[in-house]
Design a protein that fits this description.
Shape of chain A: globular
Radius of gyration of chain B: 13 Å
Structural class of chain A: mainly beta
Radius of gyration of chain A: 13 Å
Oligomer: heterodimer
Largest interface: A-B, 26 and 22 residues
Number of strands of chain A: 11
Helix content of chain A: under 10%
Chain lengths: 115, 112
């Protein structure tokens, strides 16, 4: 399966600021996915990022709050903008495994605390 | 809308016991189902992937079953060890879609 390097692993940020999370994949992948996991909750998909096109956002998530870049087939960033304490979560990127088995691989996550 | 439910939400057992974690989903039109492990504050590690045409998959002490018609999957852990302590998540991939829908997870504690 693909290997994803995600950073930072954690951060503590002041409200009103922005944080950019990076994910680097060890192979070229068509789609990358960004998830949020709020404290005590399961994972919710934020958006799907394809190279060369605008990201597709799920209901309840908007580009102004969570801008995504996908400059090439191995890299993507998610920015959490104008943060508030409610944005404190674990953010994870994901991609489909190599081959056609349909499985998914996840990065190690970014634990964000907004104070 | 696909909904995934995991029962129990938390489970604590002594070391050495065999145990079963349950996952149910409301729409049987799935492409596959994947079980993950998550350690506190960390990312997800894939454990087992079951295609919609399969009934079960095994990896070491883990066995996952799938009954698509009834909307259920189980994860069986044999001879549990303290290192198995983690949250276990199941996720289904909907047919015709790329995204995963996750359950809330089962927080498992194995006591030495």
């Amino acid at each position: 399966s693909a290997v994803i390097s995600q950073k930072p692993s954690r951060d503590i940020c002041q409200r009103g600021t922005s944080l950019t999370i990076q994910c680097q994949v060890d192979s070229q992948v068509t789609m990358m996915f960004w998830y949020r996991q709020q404290p005590g909750q399961s994972l919710t998909l934020i958006a799907t990022a394809n190279q060369g096109s605008e990201a597709t956002y799920e209901s309840g998530f908007v580009i102004d709050k969570f801008p995504i870049s996908r400059p090439n087939l191995t890299f993507s960033t998610l920015t959490v903008s104008n943060m508030s304490p409610e944005d404190s979560s674990i953010y994870l990127c994901s991609t489909k495994d190599r081959g056609f088995n349909g499985g998914y691989t996840f990065g190690s996550g970014t634990r964000l605390t907004v104070v | 809308k696909q909904e995934v439910t995991q029962i129990p939400a938390a489970l604590s057992v002594p070391e050495g016991e065999n145990l079963v974690l349950n996952c149910s989903f409301t729409d049987s039109a799935i492409y596959n189902l994947q079980w993950f492990r998550q350690d506190p504050g960390k990312g997800l590690t894939s454990l087992l992937l079951i295609q919609s045409s399969q009934r079960e998959q095994t990896s070491g002490r883990l066995n996952a079953s799938l009954d698509k018609s009834s909307g259920r999957s189980t994860l069986y852990i044999a001879a549990s060890q303290p290192g198995d302590s983690a949250t276990y998540l199941c996720a289904v991939r909907i047919q015709g879609a790329q995204k995963l829908v996750f359950g809330q997870g089962t927080r498992l504690t194995i006591n030495p």
